[in-house]
Write a structure and sequence with these properties.
The chain is of the alpha+beta class and about 100 residues long. It is built from 2 helices and 4 strands, in the order βαββαβ.
């Protein structure tokens, strides 16, 4: 069985009232969750602070952060998913496997 590299896009929304240091620490921690579990980050960047379509946990806006990554297995992606779900600073997240 040969391992194939999969491409992923992870978009997550960070609480807008997080200070810059805390936000930087959050991003670094979640980047390292991926890399420590065998996922290679192609790009990790703040996308924009945007108004949300609907209120989430009493927030009307959030900071969108986008990660493009590749992985031979889903270990890092699964761990990101598990920890992002319980992190109170991440309002929402979406992980997409990029085809082609």
């Amino acid at each position: 069985m040969s391992s194939q590299t999969e491409k992923y896009e992870i978009l997550y929304i960070i609480r807008p009232d997080l200070n810059d240091d805390a936000k930087k620490e959050l991003v670094e921690r979640f980047d390292s969750i991926l890399t420590n579990n065998g996922t290679e980050i192609v790009e990790s960047k703040d996308w924009a602070k945007r108004r949300l379509a609907y209120e989430i946990k009493k927030y009307k806006e959030g900071i969108y952060h986008l990660i493009q990554a590749t992985a031979e297995d889903s270990k890092g992606i699964d761990e990101f998913h598990r920890l992002a779900r319980i992190n109170r600073d991440i309002l929402r997240f979406m992980i997409t496997k990029v085809e082609g």
